[in-house]
Every structure is written in structure tokens, then in C-alpha cells.
Amino acid sequence: MKALITGITGQDGYYLTKFLIDNGYEVHGLIRRSSTFNTDRIDSLISEYSSQEKLYLYYSDLLDSSSLNNIINTVMPDEIYNLAAQSHVAVSFKNPLYTTQTSTVGPLTILEAVKNNEKEIKYYQASSSEMFGGVNSSSLNEESKFIPKSPYAAGKLFAHEITKIYRESYNLFAVNGILFNHESPLRGETFVTRKITRAVGRIAQGLQNKLTLGNLNASRDWGFAGDYVKGMYLMMQYDEPDDWVLSSDESHTVREFVKIAFDYVDLDWEKYVETSKKYERPNEVQHLLGDSTKARNKLNWQPEHTFKDLVEMMVDADLEEAKREAVLINENLIKPTWEHPTS
User: Fold this and answer.
1) Is residue 238 annotated as a catalytic residue, yes or no?
2) Helix 307-330 and helix 254-264, axial crossing angle in degrees, nearest 10
3) Annotated catalytic residue within 87, 92, 127, 128
4) Would you tell me the crossing angle of helices 192-204 and 307-330 to the nearest 10 degrees?
5) What is the pLDDT of residue 37?
6) 292 an active-site residue?
7) Would you say the C-alpha torsion 309, 315, 318, 319 has a positive or negative sign?
8) Is 92 a catalytic residue?
9) What are 58-109's pLDDT values in tens digits?
10) Of 41, 62, 153, 211, which alpha carbon lies 20 to 30 A from 204's?
11) Structurally, what CATH architecture does the domain formed by 2-183+221-246 represent?
């Protein structure tokens, strides 16, 4: 089996690549063209699997339809997982054009290539719980109404709907994975969860003295990314293509996340955490709670890690990162930065 993954250098790209290779796949991945190397997350996979002819990488971009078509026709994958996007919601307000272009042009290009290919290729579209808008505290499933509140969510909704249109119009095996928030030690440092755990590690090592956040009352359904990529795979193995919600079915506030993280290192979070309007969204999504009953019953999927497991896993990783940073500072190899850039 051959899989093609867009966004392979991201958090989900890492976990999905490892999972698929461990299950006997040959994985081909797209890396966005850049003036700097951006493969940090998957460097260990490249070292381990490239020489074994299990992992192949190509430079391309979701906005380069010619390149995407050429790669798909060259690789001729059995499955395509479209994970690539500008995925930071707050950034989507500052760069709405690029955000929506990558979320709309890319999926449409891939779906056209799948439709026109002589081979039957399965397609996975990474949808998002942000499409729901979080207007109340109700649990949300595949039948819930979409009310996007950001350029990111609007772009994802287009991709979600065009995937359904192509599935129904051309009888494609095209699925939408509506994943609620899923995190890991590989999460980007601009995301609130990683911002918190990175700061906890640095504060515990005396490298930082405060953490500035936005809305502490925002509530999300958080899970571990490694669990969720297994759900992506199961969607692609099901008898019929469909739309699927993956979630922990629990909602926790940013404040709860902060408290567990600081408690884990025996620190009082209220002594270190400040809030600022600067870090609040223009159009806040207050509450998201998933209902993954369909995936649990039909795919036999369920998360293996609890919310507390997730937070502590991320803190552990960032404590080790802070310790390495402290050593470099003590050896005068880098200069101390007492206030973390994203704080």
C-alpha cells in the first residue's frame, strides 16, 4: 500500500507517517517549498525510513496545481491524506487570503486529480471542529450545524463540502475527518497548549518568569494526536466513505489545562500567569465539545490517552527541552532569553 500525505512535516504528519509505515505502508510526503529546512518534526523518520525505501519526500505546494498533479500521477498512491493547511486560527485573521487559499485550492486540485486518475484512489480531507463555531455548550456530531467564525474555519468548511460534492457526484471514496483539538509534544509553540507547557518547563528551570495568555475560559475538547491519526486510518478502511467526528467527548477550559500543567511541577499557576486582550481572537469560539459515538461504534475507535495524560506528556517533553536550553546557557553557547518570545 502506498500513501501520499500533504502536510507531512506537521504534528499529524509525523504521527500518521509513523503509524502507516509501522502498518506496512510505503509513505510519500509533500514538503512546502521554503528558503529554510522545515523538516524538524520528521527528521528522525527520514533518518530511519528513507534508506529502507519506506519514506519518500517531494517539494510542492497546495497552491501549485501542476506540481500536485504530477506527483499524484507519478506516485499513483492508494490513499491520499490531505493534512496541509495554514492551521493557526488566530493567524488566519491576520493572513486570511493565504489561509483560505490553501484550504480551498489545494483540496479541489487533489480531488480533481483523484477524479481523473485511472486508479481508484481513496482521499482523506482534514476537516476541523472549528467549523461548528461553538455557539453553545451542546455536544457536536456529524449532523450538527456548521457556523464558522474565522477565515480558517470558513476555508475548512469549503473543503469539507467540496469533498462531499465530489464523493456524491463522482462516486469517489472521499472522507471528511472532523477532528476536535488534538495536541502532542510536537504541537507548534504558537498554539496555546504548547505555549503553556513550553512556559511551564522554562519557568521550572528559571528561564522564564511569566506566561501571558488570552481567554482562560475558552473550553475545548482536547485529545492526543497519536490517537487521532489511527482514526484517520480507520476511516479510510471502512466499507463506505463518510464523514466522521473524532473527539475525547470531554471539554476543558484553558484554565484547567494551565492548572494541571503547573501542578505537575508543583508550582502555583496564579503566581506566573497573566492575561491580555492581545491574545484573544476577534471572534472567539467559547466552547467546543465533540460526540464521537459514530466513530466509536462503527470504526471501533476510541482515544487511549486522557486529558491529564496529554497535559503531563507535553510538560514532560518541554521540561527536557528546558533542561537542554539551561545547559546551553550555562556553557555560554546561547544567550538567555528570560521572556519567551510567544509569552
Assistant:
1) no
2) 60
3) 128
4) 50
5) 60
6) no
7) negative
8) no
9) 998 888 889 999 999 999 999 999 999 877 787 888 888 888 888 999 999 9
10) 41
11) 3-Layer(aba) Sandwich (3.40)
